[in-house]
Amino acid sequence: MPLKDIKKELKKLDKEKLIELVADLYKNNKSVKDFFDFYVNPNEKELFMKYRNKVVQAFYPKRGFGYKLKDGKQAISDFKKIGPSSVLLAELMLTYVETGTKFTREYGDINESFYSSLESTFYNALSLIDKENMLDKFEDKVVEIVNKTEGIGWGFYDYIVQVFCEFYPNDSGDSE
């Protein structure tokens, strides 16, 4: 249904019905709750930490063992929908890549789809960082990620270096 149709229907509701509808949305939809919580109390740093924890838990759940890339990507997507600053969105995306890299270092090579997910997130993070003219701000963190991927299989390291060189053409990627 197009947005104009929704707006048309919402205009028919009185104030009490509209408040009731929003309250129901708030109670029954996690992303709507997060959106309104941020709208009412825009503590971006606190919200970032909440989503950062979700990303980390996608690799290191509080209970059990096993990663859930879908949960990490969903946390990034949900955070983005709320409308955070580009700095914190980029930071969250890089956290996903850093945590996935750490997971690989601890447990060994995973599989191609695992690395593809990290690679696409790395590329998207650097694209955002470049678009927002923040390459200098994130350079040390990005170099650290590149260095920590060395030796990881499935062409992961090679791809990360290739992307790094695309966005930082005058840097070797080695800070060690």
How would you explain this protein's 3D organization?
This protein has 176 residues and is mainly α. It folds into two domains: 1-42, no CATH class; 43-167. The chain is 76% helix and 0% strand. It has nine helices and no strands. The protein has helices at 3-12, 15-28, 30-40, 44-59, 69-82, 86-107, 112-131, 135-149, 156-167. Helix 8 runs antiparallel to helix 9. The chain is elongated, with a radius of gyration of 20 Å. The mean pLDDT is 91.
Could you state the oligomeric state of the chains shown?
Answer: single chain
**Main pleated-sheet profile:** none
Q: Roughly what is the average pLDDT, rounded to an integer? A: 91
Number of domains: 2
Radius of gyration: 20 Å
Instruction: Give helix % range.
Output: over 70%
Total strand segments: 0
Globular, elongated, flat, extended or rod-shaped: what is the shape? elongated
| Alpha-carbon distance between the two ends | 55 Å
Low-confidence segments, given as residue ranges, are none
Proportion of strand residues:
under 5%
Please provide the ordered H/E string of secondary-structure elements: HHHHHHHHH
Counted by DSSP, the helix tally is 9
Please state the structural category.
mainly alpha
